[in-house]
Amino acid sequence: MLRLLLLLTVGLLPFYLSGQIDSLPPDPTPDLSEQRLEDLLQDAEEESDFDLNTIFEDLAVYRENPLNLNNASEEDLRELGLLSDVQISSLLNYREQLGGFIAIYELQAVPSLDLATIRRILPFVGLRKEVDDFQASFKDMFTTGDNELYLRWNRILEQQRGFTPLEERPDSTPYLGDPNQLYLRYRHTYSNRLSYGFTAEKDRGEEFFRGSNKKGFDYYSAHIFLKDYNRTVKAVALGDYSANFGQGLILFTGFGYGKSTLVTSVRRGGRPLRQYTSVNEANFLRGAATTLKLSDRLEFTALISKRKRDGNLLIINDSIDIELQGSFTEFSSLQLSGLHRTANEIADRNTIGYFTTGGSLKWQANKGHVAVNGIHHQLDKALTLTPRVYNRYYFQGDQLTNLSLDYSYRWRNLTFFGETAASDNGAIATINGLLTTLDQKVNLAIVHRSYPRDFQALLGNPFGETTGGRNENGLYFGIEVHPSKHWIINAYYDAWKHPWVRSTVDAPSRGQEYRFRLTYFLKRKLTVYLELRDETKEVNVRLIDNQIDAVLPQRRLQVRLHCAYQINKAFEYRSRIDWGTTTNPINDQLSGFAIYQDLLYHPIGVPLSFTSRIALFDTDGYQVRFYNYESGLLYNFRIPAYYNQGSRFYFNLRYKGIRNMTIEARYARLFWANADTIGSGLESTGQPTRTELAAQIKIKF
Predict the structure, then answer these.
(1) 242-270, pLDDT tens digit by residue?
(2) CB distance 259 to 496 below 8 Å
(3) pLDDT higher at 103 or 435
(4) Is the predicted pLDDT of residue 239 greater than 80, yes or no?
(5) How far apart are CA 424 and CA 429, in angstroms?
(6) Which of 1, 395, 519, 522 has a beta carbon 3.0–4.6 Å from 488's, enabling a disulfide?
(7) What is the phi-psi region of residue 292: left when phi exceeds 0, alpha when psi lies from -120 to 50, beta otherwise?
(8) Residue 686 to residues 169, 343, 398, 668, Cα–Cα distance (Å)
(9) Coil, helix or strand at residue 185
(10) What is the mean pLDDT of residues 313-327?
(11) Chain-centroid distance, C-alpha 525
């Protein structure tokens, strides 16, 4: 209790220092993507496999080559990731009505663009035309530009159970590799138009230059991506790439945000093709794709992908003979983790041949578009699921075809969008939405979704409460209000139902959620927000003396107070307090809190900088958890869940005193006071601590 009071006292300190501040750098508002990532993991009901570590990298390119607001498309603005859907529509409407921007200061006249948003986007946008303007040849783009090389290492210092010598624990299979995690990435960029490079990674426990990885790293990825080469060739992707059509009902391999405090950012979109540079080993396409502008109004995208996927082959006679894998004709599931540390994980590696082809024909007008999309999947083995009630309508077999129609239309201050899709079993899913600016200070978003229980899409990821775009009907309302110069109100309400049983719920179920955030910001000095989130959904509850679980409502309530304060040009201070409860009609109420203090030091003209955090938390278990973004090495970060009783500390150090080189180090330590070990199974540390050490070198040439 004493530690909590001390941190609370320190947390209020910035409010008493406001009179001591002089000229300050840009607004300390936390990055919008950080908030969205926290929201994404907060919504997850189970572990999801996606890589978060490269979603910011394009901002570095835009900082060097600002996006021209006078010719940027809707897809370009959406890919920037710093504007809400309503703000994008308002900016496009303003540009159409006035014929473009004369000065960057005109952004203040665009409805829905508040001063905090304008300050946030200014480093990445401008009005100057791109230098090359279709004049540079492919050879020039390929040989000139910026090159970056990243070398990263990290390790958990405690000896986890998977790395304990076999003779000390004969009851389990060890990891075959060492505990070091290694990462290598090279990328060449020319303006915003050309990117090529490769990525290689070895996870902890995977072999390196021996055993199953005699060629070095466990995972390799390479890409060449060309954008806006001329007025006909809009994009060309070779190697690994990501793709999305429409609202993601049939294809969305990029990073898809869900519900967040950016309450009017509910629309999928962006360019249909993008380069792929992450270390997620499942969610990408490998092959070739292109987007061609056939006329002033017509655009065509075609893609083809052929790759291997990890999968669980159906076992014959309780054994798998690696040499006979080609004779297997069925598998039970696709693996998403990308981990190959044990003999069993290695046996599942690259066992499934996965072929994908598709296309999109889009008619584009000034105020909207209509597109017809198709995608076909072919597997070299049939997916055969273990029969369960919840998966009765899941896809099974070796091929699947989807078709969809998506649209958008802007009329005055209204933007309509949506997509309707069909799978080859006849099921039809649809999502439709409306974005509007009610007046200069009020923005509204409405989204309706209807995903039948039997809709099937292998690479779909539309907006919704759950992933996969199936077995869900829902209605979402989001509103953003700017009542005065320094205040912002964000709120949303979402209600949904699942018409069929789910893997964790033994009956049709329903839920609802509302969220409210009140933000106060003082130009270039202070940002404070108070947030309330209340979610009620039906879950399985074990009844006494009854073998059948009851499906009853469970409520999660969380309150957050966050403060970010710029002490001077070099120091920024952040503080956060989380409190929450989880209740259901059977169990006692579970509750807990988490609190952290951050100090960020980024001096001007000094090559050394650091960020640091100390956090304390006390909750009744994983059901009461708080996700918090943690700064890490450049383009690498974490969003762990704080729960149980304990503390967390990290310290990041960055040195830029050597020309074209950045050297970084990170130390992080987690402590649980109410547990004997952190992690389970082979990941168990055998101690109530887990200590991580990491280092990275970035070379620019």
Answers:
(1) 999 999 999 998 766 678 888 888 888 88
(2) no
(3) 435
(4) yes
(5) 12
(6) 519
(7) beta
(8) 13, 23, 43, 18
(9) strand
(10) 53
(11) 29
Mean pLDDT of 384-406: 94
- One-letter amino acid for residue 126 of the chain: G
Among 2, 342, 292, 38, CA closest to 162:
342
**Got the DSSP string for 254-315?**
S----S-SSTT-----S-SEEE-----SSS-EEEEEEEEE-SSSEEEEEEEEEEEE-EEEPP
Q: What's the 3-state SS for 451-508? A: ECCCCCCCECCCCCCCCCCCCEEEEEEEEEEEEECCEEEEEEEEEEEECCCECCECCC
Q: Is the pLDDT of residue 48 over 50?
A: no
CB 697 within 8 A of CB 669: no
Per-position b or e across 621-653, b if 16+ CB within 10 A of its CB: eebbbbbbbbbbbbbbbbbbbbbbbbbbbbebb
Measure the CA–CA gap between 338 and 663, rounded to whole angstroms: 28
**What 8-state DSSP symbol labels residue 442?**
E
pTM for the model: 0.87
Residue 486: CB atoms within 10 Å: 16
**Pair of tokens at residue 108:** 């203040």
Token digits for 187? 């990328």
SS3 608: strand
- Hey, what are 183's tokens? 């990462």
pLDDT higher at 172 or 434: 434
The number of helix segments (H) and strand segments (E) in the chain equals 8, 31
Question: What pLDDT score does 261 carry?
Answer: 82
| pLDDT tens figures, 598-654 | 999 998 889 999 999 999 999 999 999 998 888 888 877 788 899 999 999 999 999
Place of tokens 């059901």: 623
Asked if 54 and 148 count as a contact pair (C-beta separation under 8 A), the reply is: no
Report the distance separating Cα 275 and Cα 145, nearest Å.
17
**Which pair of tokens denotes residue 481?**
């209000």
- For residue 407, list its beta bridge partners: 370, 418
> How confident is the model at residue 33, as a pLDDT?
54
User: 542: Cβ–Cβ under 8 A, 6 or more apart, which residues?
Assistant: 549, 550, 586
- Give the distance, in angstroms, between the CA of residue 59 and the centroid of all CA atoms in the same chain: 15
Angle at 670 between CA 666 and CA 675, to 5 degrees: 160
Out of 240-249, 478-487, 491-500, which region has the weakest mean confidence (pLDDT)? Answer: 478-487
